[in-house]
TrEMBL record:
Signal peptide: none
Pathway connected to this protein: Cell wall biogenesis; peptidoglycan biosynthesis
Annotated source species: Rhodanobacter denitrificans
Superkingdom, natural source: Bacteria
Protein name (database record): peptidoglycan glycosyltransferase
Limits of the Penicillin-binding C-terminal domain: 677-757
Domain Glycosyl transferase family span(s) in chain numbering: 37-210
Transmembrane segments: none
Pfam hit, one: Transpeptidase
Amino acid sequence: MIAVLLAAVLLDRLFPLHLPAPDTGSTVVLARDGTPLRAFADSDGVWRYPTTAKQVSPLYLKALLTYEDCWFYRHRGVNPYALLRGLAGGLSHGRIVSGGSTLTMQVARIIEPIPHTFRGKLLQIFRALQLEAHLSKAQILDLYLNHAPFGGPIEGVEAASWAYLGKPAGRLSRAEAALLAVLPQSPSRLRPDRHPEAARAARDKVLKRMRDLGVWSAAAVRDAAIEPVVARSLRAPLSAALLAERLHRQQPQARRIASTIDANLQRAAEDRVSAYLSRLPAHTSAALLVVDNATLEARIYVGTSDFADPQRHGYIDMVDAPRSPGSTLKPFLYGLALDDGLIHSQSLLVDAPQDFGGYKPGNFDEAFSGPVSAAEALQRSLNVPAVDVLDRVGPNRFVARLANGGVDLGLPAGAQPNLSIILGGASTRLENLVGAYTAFANGGLAGTPRYTTEQPARARRLLSPGAAWIIRDILASNPADVEGGPLAGAINRHATVAWKTGTSYGYRDAWSIGVTDRWTVGVWIGRPDGTPSPGQYGAVTALPLLFQIVDMLPSRGGHARAQPASVKSVDICWPLGGAVAATDPALCRQRRSAWVLDDALPPTFAERDLGAWSSGLLTLRVNTKGQRLSGACHASHEHTIQLARWPALATPWLGVDDRARSALPPLAPGCAADSLDRAAPIRIAGLGNGVTLRRAPNSEHPLRVTLRALGTQTAVQWLLNGRLQGSSDADAAIAISLPQAGDYRITALARDGAFATLALRVMGPSP
């Protein structure tokens, strides 16, 4: 006996068992419910999804062990009775008819090529004994479950179940369990996608065995036999392909990577994106990221509109690609200004041509609106007010605050933060933006999107809870009539969605980001190679897709955020910006209801270039005729008055009454000029007010007029119906085109606030 044991040990040392390495082979990336998203074949092109006996259906294990090796847990690798039966059959037929192989012997043949000969059978027996000596029964069974051949490149029951049946091996019916139990006996001949009748006959043979042995009842087997053999054509899963590739790259040794993706939502979103992109130019791609606000786990990750389309550069992951964010950073700027006590939601800002040290921003539509509230400026994504606010907050501080919240902005080499950042003059990633926007649902804490449950949940302070709540309320109350939006569909259809759009310079990137109680959704549309897409911008291109995605997401499970105690509603006055209760009614020209933070009621911004006068409360001495007294100038019966002054650049947009009540009283005769008189009146030369013009007959060119602003030595901005047409130096001429018939209003606005306007009408060409 000892000699036999020594011989066995010697043979084991001389001919060692070579087991498959546990950290090699194919890799599968799974959705959160275990659904395969994408599989990466091994070096031999084999698809194998790692699994264990605890993860597969008990019905399958029962069918497998009953049909293949009912003595599996009792023998030591070889069943002598089955082996003798197989040997007798081989001798009588002259060839092997029934090998008498145990499951352990089958594993031996799976992990090492062994010929189907009598000599090969001896080697198979030896290897089976080695397996039993080195491994537990559970380990041997797991080897079979993971390496059994199922036809084509498919190995293992989990891969076979998904490939043929579209479901995990843990949810098999009796009929499906019987089919997969018998398939490895002859995977090529019994493949259900190619030979369904042969597969059915083999399956029914297993079912009959289960009934005859009393393992399953006759009624259960009868019901199972009714099921047809319907198999999908073999295809590898390819959902969230770029995320799967990203996770596989991060964990190259992992064979099974569980992601946070919701398989059903992912498939639905990919279909939505594909259908939506079909109406856009051929080279256009899209990216979509949906994050659960409570856990920061990504439920949908679409890195490209079509992974297999080279025209759309489908291999580029646009969730992770640096792009210009356009105006999507503006909510954070206004939130920071709230935290700094610079503004409240209805602070008076001026949307007019301004010069910020040589930087002269314009709006997307090239029009200006004059006096606007901070909320309106954010909702309409006006550029000049945003640059004005950033100039007061400070670009360096703004960039640092974003970085603290997880948004690292990429700047050109050697560049420093500047005012253009708020209009997209930097780069960031969709995943960074989505993570930052979760702050509007999580009390000002921005998070990093999580793609696996192993990733830690990182949340960093970006805004105070009060500032985040106010900005979200502003974004959720946007009155814009956009495709798929609240006013274009059912009443209050998207009332709980706080959304913001953005468009980068040259129509290269169209963005939309939306926040609900439960979800934060980010959409990017553009060309991955950076080529402009004229006419494609955030509100028209990306926002409708965002609303489609929000509509398909489950709405339950989120938690509505209560109004923080630091936020109050206060009625304020324009133009001064203070509370109605603390403002003289005569100085309250417009009354508005504002959200204020920590009881801060900052006054309207002082003007950057004071010019003739500054906005705000102005106290003057006047005589009995209401004429202004300056310096040492006095009069009998003089008294003081107060004026609520509007910002100078807002004056062209004011009504007649507001303009009159804000106007300076004339200087009393004999009084020396004061600084308030620095703005001299200007006038427009070249046309008279109220004229009517007609285009020359038979002319295909638009009517053009040449004008000058007289009476100023500063630069002059020229507006046509509120849209900037250009600028001129002092009294230099400018040509303005009047493209079609209609009424026009031309405004010349000097840098010091002086302005002049004229109205005219253009008639069509005479017949």
